[in-house]
# Entry
Amino acid sequence: MLGIILALVALMFLAYRGYSILWVAPVSAIILGLTGGLNLLTMYKDTYMTGFAGYVQSWFPVFMLGAIFGHLMDYTGAAKSIAHWLTKLIGPKRAIIGIVVGCGVLTYGGISLFVVVFAMYPLALELFREANITRKLIPGAIALGSFTFTMTAIPGTPQIQNMIPTKYFGTTPTAAPIMGSVAAILMFILGVSWLTYRQKKFEAKGEFFTEPKNREGEVVDYAALPNPYLSMLPLIMVIALMNVLNSFVKAGRLEMDAVGTLIIALIAGIVLSMVLNPGKRLGFTKSVSAGAAGSMTAILNTAAAVGFGTVVKSVPGFAELTRVLLNIPGTPLISEAVAVNLLAGATGSASGGMSIALEALGGKYLEIAQATGISPEAFHRVASLASGGLDTLPHNGAVLTLLAVTGMTHKESYIDIGMTSLVLPLIASIPSILLGSLGII
# Structure
């Protein structure tokens, strides 16, 4: 147990310091091996790399196609067109809600969180300038729209954080719609309320919009953007086709898992994005290549964390850790939420932490679900929600990217990122756990 704790602390500390998890995870695994009495070479070559390679084998198509889709939506201007249309529709007086909704639509459409950050920042800058709201709130607004309800809560979202539990619980992306919808509504309302409260606090202190000192942000020619209604079609295609195919699977009319349905949906979205933008065809190959190359970093980082989790399972102290987690008082959904949150926080990754937790304990939770009568869908939704809690601690990669793109520092804006994407999701998951325990999913 002490070795597991030391290894997790090392993983979290080194990741927080900004070091690559590609070497941080194996080093942390060595600490596990030393304290657990494992043969270090065998541990790395067999145990660690088996977990690492297994994750890549299972999820690489999703990461690659998702990144390609996001790059194409960005390259064609479709993502900016949709975001601009939404923010103009909502209006500058509701700048915060406009940014949150814009990010939410893009994220729910399957676009990578990182792409959404880059696409939305120029629009956020324009809206906050017009509404005279301090730029310190831009990271919090983007985090709320991208890292919370559309990532983990709204049923049917194609984000990886909603797809991973399907592998362990035999569920579909629309699992536990009531639990997810309640959590999503709470995150949205509480998050917007917090940011509005903060806006008033800044205004009371005389803090309003100031121009960035070094305006390296992209200058967007909004008149040249494609039609927003046509731009939405690839997003709608991905969501609709994935969920239609999953309904066929559930009805026994199609033999395929949830990952397979997402792969088909993403391919359809990619093709439609190209068909709708023939004038951009000369840049398609470059965009596809950039997306494919970019996906490697994302999946290898997550796979490194999963490899570490595989080693955790192999040490003697894991049996005691399992006993402690499974014996947390109350519903086993609380145990699952704690396990996923702790590991997501330790790794600074929602998908990485959840993958470690479910790889280690998913089978146990499925057995508990079958023994207690709690629906596997409830375990799916709680795992997804929990992955979006402690993952956004200060060392999280998405948080660091968001602050870098917006030109803000942790001191200036992390309080709002932390509140909207860490504290409030934890609060919003509580009613969902209660509903799941009562069988209301």
About this structure: The chain has one domain: 2-437. Residues 2-437 form one domain. DSSP finds 19 helices and no strands in the chain. The mean pLDDT is 86.
